[in-house]
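Project standup — Tuesday

K.O.: blocked on the structure for the chain from last sprint. Re-posting the sequence here as requested.
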Amino acid sequence: MTKATPASSESTNLTRLWYRLYLKRKAEGMALNPV
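H.V.: unblocked you, prediction finished:
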């Protein structure tokens, strides 16, 4: 596996951060509006 460039690594980190925030919001939404 080749070493990722700083730019792609940063992009991956941002994607993970966004995904975590998305999951947190989704969990909060489910808690507020149980289906």
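K.O.: great, moving the ticket to review. Helices lie at 6-32. The chain has a mean pLDDT of 83.
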